[in-house]
Amino acid sequence: MDKAVHPFHLSGETITGWFFVIETVIHGKIKGRGSGIMYVQDEYYFLNLANDLVHDHDYEILHIDQDSQEIWLEKQQKDTSNVIRLYHKSFDWGNHLKNDMAQVIYKVQNLRKLLGGQKVKIHDVYVAAQPPVDDWESLKKPLLVKDKKQTEMHVYYLDERNRISEKHRLYDNLGLDDRPFVQSDNEGTMERQSYELKSLLKKRLVEQQQAEQSVFQKGRPLFTYILLAINVLLFFLLERHGSSLNTQSLIEFGAKYNPAILQGEWWRLISSMFLHIGVVHLLMNMIALFYLGTAVERLYGSSRFIIIYFLAGLTGGLASFAFNTQVSAGASGAIFGLFGSLLYFGVLYKRLFFRTMGWNLLFILALNIAFGLMMPQIDNGAHIGGLLGGFLASAFVSLPGKKKWLNQLGGFLLYLLMAGGLLFYGMHFSAANLLQLAQQSLDQKEYQRTINYTERGLEDGTEYQAELLFYRSLAHLKLDETEAAIDDLEKSLEAKPDFAEAHYNLALLYASHDQIDNAKQHAEKALNLQPDNDDFGNLVHRLSSNEG
């Protein structure tokens, strides 16, 4: 009787036979993937697909591998960055394909800093003769990737049987018109044209790289060095004729000084750009000017650079005039304007910006702004005004070869609006400047104008409330409005109880109304605050004598 053989107890010859059968089936299915006419056809199709996306649909080439079998493309459409990875390779098993997809996601995550748009769509395209032998169709479903940006992955497997439908699905997802390729059936012709397409794509990549390099070669640093020399020369002149730390010397040499500006010395908004307060201030600004200036002058060219520098410096000066009452000087406003010009470059060349200087520049800029906010003696108004002014000035002059008249007109109009707004605010709403204008109009005996200036300043309830009320009281006195003057002085002392001059004036007014006790009380407070003031002492003596 024959022995029954258990199906799991096979002889060595049987196992070898089964492996032979499996290998025959698999390799019979995928034979020709790496050689012969099938490989030539696949490569020919792969390169035609890449060429169509690059030359007919304006996709940029990110990378081509050495054998031109893997090509990465990218194009931003509205708020989405479409990244296409084309790969000419066959996969025997779905798991191998899945592992390759994971590598693609990892590479895109490393690239995300260079990609524009709020969303990223990965289109992973495989061109092969046959699909994997096992069940892999589920991998075609869109995959959402956890990332800082919304990232979505689509997989396309363009094998011989599904090539037309998969290409249509790819183009439909990209929003492109799917036109069939005109291809040859002759093996020799396909090989020759494949070689030409490889050369064409590589040439396009080289041209892209050369175009990117040429962006940084629009000019040679010239004005940067001239500005450095002027700043250093004026610093030594300032030190020789006084001191860069002396307020009076700074004012005499042209520092930003609001009272003088309000009297018509508007040139101080420019002259203050070339003065520095101390050696450390000079060194820090000159180092920044050297690095930023050379970069901006190479990007924009010398003529555009000098326009940006002065326009940024002007808005920095206007912002300082509007928001800072202290004497100030320095090239910081113009230097922050150079930051702004590099940010505008980043708007036009986002990927190139982040690939070269982007994140480092943003970090340094954020650090400078944070440092300025923590240091009260730093003129943050000039910094922010210069930054915004430099950005808008860059939009106005634009980059060489990037003339967009609508954008340039918009940049020019916004710059004028910003500069005019800062000037208007400084003249009509800055409490410190209104206080200065009130003092000037009082000296010019224009008392109603003094009242108008002080009332505009008081609308904001500022820290200068006591001083504004004091000057309004003087104007009321000149207009013989005594009760109004007394009321203003009392409110002034409520805001600032140690205001000696207000106590003194109020004592005089009370004395004129025979309110001797109130007069003596305020006169004594004024004298206590300023014991060396002879006028205060004499008033106390007279009131005491009168009381006696």
Describe, in plain words, how this protein is organized in 3D.
Helix content is 65%, strand content 8%. By secondary structure, the chain is an alpha/beta fold. The N and C termini lie far apart (151 Å). The chain is elongated. Helix 17 runs antiparallel to helix 18, helix 18 (447-458) packs antiparallel against helix 19 and helix 19 (465-478) packs antiparallel against helix 20 (482-495). It has 23 helices and 6 strands. The longest helix has 29 residues, at 187-215.
Tell me the Rg in angstroms: 38 Å
The class by helix and strand makeup works out as alpha/beta
- Order the strands across the largest sheet as they lie in space: 1-2-3-4-6-5
Largest sheet: 6 strands, mixed
Distance between the amino and carboxyl termini? 151 Å
Total helices: the number is 23
Layout of helices and strands, plus pairs?
Layout lengths: L11 H19 L5 H21 L3 E5 L5 E8 L2 E9 L5 H18 L7 E9 L15 E3 L4 E9 L4 H12 L12 H29 L7 H18 L6 H7 L4 H5 L5 H4 L7 H22 L1 H22 L8 H17 L1 H7 L1 H17 L5 H18 L7 H24 L2 H13 L3 H12 L6 H14 L3 H14 L4 H13 L3 H14 L4 H14 L1
Parallel strand pairs: 3-4, 4-6
Antiparallel strand pairs: 1-2, 2-3, 5-6
Helix pairs in contact: 2-5, 6-10, 10-11, 10-12, 11-12, 11-15, 11-16, 12-13, 12-15, 15-16, 17-18, 17-19, 18-19, 19-20, 20-21, 21-22, 22-23
